[in-house]
Amino acid sequence: MKKLRIDILSDLVCPWCFIGYTRLEKVLAQLRIDKHLQPEIHWHPFELNPTLPAGGEILNQHLQTKYQMTAQQRQLSQQKITKLGNELGIHFQFTADMRIYNTRKAHQLMMWAARSQQQTPFQKALFLAYFQEGQIMDDTDTLLDIAVAQGLDRRDCRRVLTDPGWSSAVVQTEKQWLEAGIQAVPAMIIEQHILLNGAQPITELHDTLDGLIDTLPSLH
Question: Dihedrals φ, ψ of 151, to 5°?
Fold first, then answer.
């Protein structure tokens, strides 16, 4: 048995983060069998839109303003994302009234979830709630419901959301990653020294991890 540490920077409103993780998940499932692998995943915050007000804004308008995307460019991009998602079992639901949200609260809960080793199931639930179910991702009760469904305690989660210290922790952590040179997500750091930017193709991701695992010591 070999242990492999993977640190992931992501934001729940980033479709490429959802795609990138799902590809990783499929690769790790195979490597668990082939290489007797024990992956250890740590999630870290990276807010794409930390200044968005409560309630967010219409996604299509946001893409046009922030990235200067035309309607055609936006449509082609979302079609590509939807196609790639379908290949992975993700069913993206891009609608005309879909909104994009400030994700600070979600990141606070994600940081706290590390204490109970519930980060990954919680992150997956956040992706699904936003991209497939169209839930309001800056709403406290929505986030609490998602957290509780993953086995987290509602009272503890509510304290995390109301404690300014957790908000500050998110900001400070993001600052440290920016200073380390991370400028976009998804970003994966393998064994704390190999950086993989973007949603890596499954074959390339498999080859990278497969080769690295052979160099790792076995657990006893």
Answer: 95, 5
Element (H, E) at 176: helix 164-179
At 50 the three-state DSSP class reads: coil
Phi, psi torsion values for 209, nearest 5 degrees? -70, -40
Amino acid at 140: T
Q: What is the spatial distance between Cα 170 and Cα 50, in angstroms, rounded to a whole number?
A: 11
CB-based contact 69:89 (threshold 8 Å) = no
Q: What are the pLDDT digits (tens) for 66-120?
A: 999 999 999 999 999 999 999 999 999 999 999 999 999 999 999 999 999 999 9
Helix/strand/coil percentages in the chain, nearest 5: 55, 15, 30
Contacts of 39 (CB under 8 A, 6+ apart): 3, 4, 6, 28, 31, 32
- Up-side HSE of residue 139: CA atoms within 13 Å toward CB? 12
For the chain, the domains span: 2-213
Collect all residues with Cβ–Cβ distance below 8 Å to 191 and sequence separation of at least 6.
4, 5, 212, 216
Instruction: Produce one character per residue of 180-211: b if its CB has 16 or more CB atoms within 10 Å, e if not.
Output: eebeebbbbbbeeeeebeebbebeebbebbee
d(CA 61, CA 52): 13
Classify domain 2-213 by CATH number. 3.40.30.10
Burial of 7 (0-12, 13-18, 19+ CB in 10 A): middle
At 218, the pLDDT band (50, 70, 90 cuts) reads: confident
